[in-house]
Amino acid sequence: MTDLVTFGETMLRLSPPRGDRLETTRELAVQAGGAESNVAVGAARLGVDAAWLSKLPDSPLGRRVTSELRSHGVSPEIAWADPDKSRVGTYYLEHGGAPRGTNVIYDRANAAITTVEPDELPAAPLDGAEWFHTTGITPALSPAAAETTTALLRRAGEAGATRSFDLNYRSKLWGPDEARDAYETLFEHVDTLFVPHRDARAVLDRDGDAVEVAHGLATDHALDTVVVTRGDEGATALTGGDVYEQAVFEAETFDAIGTGDAFVAGFVAERLRGGDVSAALEWGSATAAVKRTTDGDLAVTTRAEVASVIDGADRISR
Q: Which positions fall inside the Carbohydrate kinase PfkB domain (predicted)?
């Protein structure tokens, strides 16, 4: 039986060597990257039986995505589309230090995922899963993707799975008002919510500190668990009226992309192993720390490596 099923878009990430500009580089490294598949990979690397649901063109690039995810232990469960009528989304990542900074350019219009329908996705993995996860990126992609997100959350609930949702607000996809309306219609189908504190304020209109935000969201939307992330200040979780705090673990940042997804992966993996919310926060934070030391979107790690971070690394207290 599958432990974890995720649903969403995975793109191909194209990156020039560090220090090179996109407009002058002659080389691009290719890697798979997408919030939900990042979570599936991170959890699979920690011993979870994970599957990823999506729609891709039946093309070399579509198969490139699935082969990379499969190499990390994830089972891709795909609705294959006509490659003449759809495509794989891409994004370009140009690493740059201060004062230039890192630049991200998305090219995802008309990706196969934008036409996805619930009935064309394989149903068996979700029907037997213990946990279902998706993010706020997916419903922003198209009306069809939004409808499928809702349908899968409903189906997962009917099947008895725990359902988690990472807000993952992207201003390049939609504005805060449209996003808030969409998110709040989904919350009734969510058990565990992950939300950055900054987005709780800017998108959900939630004032107050992390504990106040968590209490408000849990009360208003009948959420079992709310995890409020605060960047390098750590994370706060509320569940059953109890509050848990987790500081970050020290890490030398090589690539920060995918850090939030690694946190979710560690959290979910520990919950699936039977750990409580406090332990899940610790595993999430440690997995995120390891992710920051590696290139690419994916948390390529092991249980032993993450456990060693928990056992021996210093926490940064803010």
A: 1-297
Contact 53, 152 (CB under 8 A): yes
Does residue 20 form part of some domain? no
Q: Report percent pLDDT > 90 for the chain.
A: 93
Determine whether 261 is an active site residue. Answer: yes
Residue 65 lies in a domain: yes
Residue 123's pLDDT band (cuts 50, 70, 90):
confident
pTM for the predicted model, two decimal places: 0.96
State the average pLDDT over residues 248-276. 96
Residue 305 belongs to domain spanning? 4-8+34-87+110-316
Alpha-carbon span 247 to 130, nearest angstrom: 28
Q: Which residues contact 108 (CB under 8 A, 6 or more apart)?
A: 9, 11, 89, 90, 91, 141
CB 131 within 8 A of CB 161: yes
Please report, for the domain that includes residue 40, its CATH number: 3.40.1190.20
Is the pLDDT at 53 greater than 70? The verdict is yes
Question: Is residue 14 in some structural domain?
Answer: no
Please give the Cα distance from 212 to 228 (Å, whole number): 10
Residue 131 in tokens: 């946990």
- Please tell me the total count of domains within the chain: 1
Is residue 119 in a domain?
Answer: yes
pLDDT score recorded for residue 313: 60
Backbone angles phi, psi at 251, to 5 degrees: -155, 140
